[in-house]
Design goal:
ten-stranded mixed sheet; globular; 13 helices; alpha/beta; 24% strand
């Protein structure tokens, strides 16, 4: 690797060169940068971030009450103890990330307001050339890098997903998407309808219930929720005993991961038991007269879609108080004063919030080329959800659905640093993955098994994602508890790796 940052003169302009270019300064990019500083201290790297600041999701999403739906003991980094409540607000998460940046001198590596338009690999030079533009001045910027580390997440930050409904132009109120929440919206004394039943809706509804005349969560079908205190008893007890926070962090992480593993397995082995327990928690809050069969009993088994955690049952307390309500129905069309439902009922509204999910963006909507040929990631096969056949010197961070995203940030970062160290020791400039002889008759399947996990945003855009095989090394298993042991043992001289 070349330690110094170099400038290359090109026909267009001077370009800066780095050993590693990290895309995105969200939870993945900042975590990856930390591992670079600790494990490869001699290597040069830069982080390119489209937004004006760090944080990714926690910066771009500004709707009321935005919070994590994973506990911060595992969503936080392995290397920095989380000392607050397990379910945290965006503000608390950003403060935590800011501490990581300050404590590890990462800020000097970040270039904000840099939108990447294209990335081109040259096998002749063994280099990526990245073309970007600054979002404030429109200035073109060119970077070259030996290695590309994609940490940009998996959805389009600029716009959320909103289905096409008839009559939206007739509605006289305001329609907003949580992903682009406006600063000037006024909810006081308004009838609000939130369309959706996932984590965003479950967060938004209780946080605006006291501000508006009434809020209704309109869902096409029910979702599973878990209820609990926004606290971890063992963490509270260990703090009373004045145990070191680093010890507390590790103990609590291990406890939570053990319990998550057991819960995931139980969802598969005894789905009906888990279903009754989850719904029973809701019935306990809403009372025996509430129709949980209609509104909170999903048709699928637990964990085929993400289960949102509702801290202190705030969503259900809002419903029980009468400030919020749930309607399970389908939309016929929008009308002047609300939504006409297929049941014939009219749902009056002044403001409609479309908490209907997001648009998946395969690798940041960047135009990729390999040796002059456009790259379609849907034509590649993934190696453990990190690398792709025929794509040299690149790794993608794609986290977990059933465990905290950040757990995989740490795993992938250790893998990348080990891989880069291996390449340097062997004098290798290029690495890619390829199917081996024993893989020639392997079934090539969609990125994820819909029988295992099937949220709408994945199903809508599956063609954009790389394919998988039926062997562990050729898929992203979504199984942290297996990967935490398998990935560190990866044989970097295995037949799937091709060096140059």
């Amino acid at each position: 690797m070349n330690v110094a940052v170099r400038s290359h003169a090109t026909a267009k302009q001077a370009s800066e060169h780095f050993d590693v270019l990290i895309v995105g300064a969200g939870i993945s990019g900042i975590g990856s940068a930390y591992h670079m500083t600790k494990q490869l201290p001699g290597a040069s790297f830069v982080i390119l971030e489209t937004q004006a600041t760090f944080g990714g999701t926690w910066t771009t999403h500004r709707y009321p009450g935005i919070r994590s739906d994973s506990d911060l003991h595992t969503f936080g980094y392995s290397f920095k103890p989380w000392v607050g409540p397990p379910i945290a607000t965006a503000e608390e998460i950003l403060a935590y990330m800011n501490e990581v940046i300050d404590e590890n001198d990462i800020a000097r590596h970040i270039r904000y307001k840099h939108k990447i338009n294209s990335a081109s690999w040259s096998s002749e030079q063994n280099l990526w050339t990245i073309e970007a533009v600054t979002t404030d001045t429109g200035e073109a910027k060119t970077f070259t890098a030996n290695f590309l580390w994609m940490c940009q997440g998996y959805y389009r930050h600029s716009e959320g997903y909103t289905p096409e409904w008839k009559g939206t132009d007739r509605f006289k109120g305001r329609i907003v998407h949580p992903q682009t929440w406006p600063d000037d919206i006024e909810l006081a004394n308004k009838k609000v309808v939130v369309i959706g039943s996932g984590a965003t809706a479950a967060t938004l509804v209780p946080n605006i219930a006291d501000k508006c005349a009434h809020v209704t969560m309109l869902q096409r079908s029910p979702t599973y929720f878990r209820l609990g205190r926004n606290a971890i008893e063992i963490a509270e007890e260990l703090r009373r005993l004045q145990v070191d926070e680093a010890w507390i962090h590790e103990i609590v992480r291990r406890k939570i991961l053990f319990e998550q593993d057991a819960f995931t397995k139980l969802c598969i082995s005894k789905p009906e038991q888990v279903k009754q327990e989850l719904i029973g928690q809701i019935s306990a809050v809403l009372g025996p007269e509430y129709d949980v069969d209609t509104h909170f009993t999903p048709s699928y088994r637990p964990w085929r879609q993400r289960i949102a955690f509702v801290p202190d049952a705030d969503l259900f307390k809002g419903i029980a108080s009468g400030k919020a309500s749930v309607v399970t129905d389908e939309i016929e069309c929008f009308v002047e004063n609300g939504i006409q439902l297929k049941s014939g009922k009219l749902l009056e509204a002044d403001v409609i919030v479309t908490a209907t999910g997001f648009n998946l963006a395969a690798l940041g909507d960047i135009a990729f080329e390999v040796d002059g040929k456009p790259l379609a990631f849907g034509d590649t096969v993934t190696y453990r959800g990190m690398m792709f056949t025929g794509v040299p010197n690149m790794v993608w961070v794609f986290g977990y659905f059933r465990a905290s995203w950040t757990l995989r940030v740490d795993l992938v970062a250790d893998f990348v640093c080990r891989l880069l160290g291996h390449m340097k020791a062997k004098g290798r400039k290029k690495v890619e993955v390829k199917l081996r002889a024993e893989d020639h008759n392997m079934p090539i399947l969609p990125w994820i098994d819909p029988e295992n996990f099937n949220p709408g945003y994945m199903m809508r855009n599956m063609d954009l994602l790389p394919k998988r095989g039926d062997k562990p090394e050729w898929q992203h298993s979504q199984d942290y508890w297996t990967e935490k042991d398998e990935i560190p043992k990866t044989d970097l001289e295995g037949g799937e790796f091709v060096y140059g």
